[in-house]
């Protein structure tokens, strides 16, 4: 995941790597929404590990390592994360993701100085390829991966909603001017079919932009 990024430009990208290891088969949603002081036009995006200022090239990995028994069971499998970011990058540093080993914190903001300094909102999107693939060329549809959202103590549910990757670009939400939104994402592999053994990789890209 490519975290904390803040720019004085109206377009920003961040990414998260997704990995599935398949062995051969022999909640209520909450989020934070904070009002920011007006400032020169800019967007900010972080996914996973990051800092409040500057660019960060880290791409965190979300993964699931399935045994043969798990693969055959057809039971959805929770995915883990190598992110260590638990605290919010804005406000008082509240612990938004208490267990980052199984969660990924995602936050974005849009600021403008006045109504003539850009559109009234920015858009948060995520883009996924059609499939994850392994070295042998086998594939798993990205639509097998979904996410739920949470943020302890929040009174602003679904600021960034839960969903399922669709192998294309999805609009997640709009961000009003001078607002920061954030919550914690937990990913799940649907495991709806038996797959060939191998390590399957793919990467999704989050984008926040304002025309």
CA(first)-CA(last) distance: 24 Å
Low-confidence stretches: 1-9, 22-30
Question: What is the approximate shape?
Answer: elongated
Q: Based on DSSP secondary structure assignment, what is the total number of beta strands?
A: 16
Helical coverage, percent range: under 10%
Number of domain modules: 1
Please, what is the oligomeric state? single chain
User: Which structural class matches the secondary elements?
Assistant: mainly beta
SSE run = EEEEEHEEEEEEEEEEE
What's this, in brief?
The protein is mostly beta strands and 211 residues long. It contains 1 helix and 16 strands. The protein has one domain (5-209).
What do you see in this structure?
The chain is mainly β and 211 residues long. Helix content is 3%, strand content 45%. It is built from one helix and 16 strands. It has one helix at 68-73, and strands at 5-7, 11-22, 32-35, 42-47, 61-66, 77-78, 80-81, 104-111, 121-127, 131-133, 139-141, 145-150, 163-164, 169-176, 179-189, 198-209. Strands 1, 3, 4, 6, 8, 12, 13 and 15 form an eight-stranded antiparallel sheet that branches. Strands 7-5-2-16-9-14 form a six-stranded mixed sheet. A two-stranded antiparallel sheet has the order 10-11. Strand 10 and strand 11 (139-141) form a beta hairpin. The longest helix has 6 residues, at 68-73. Residues 1-9 and 22-30 have low confidence and may be disordered.
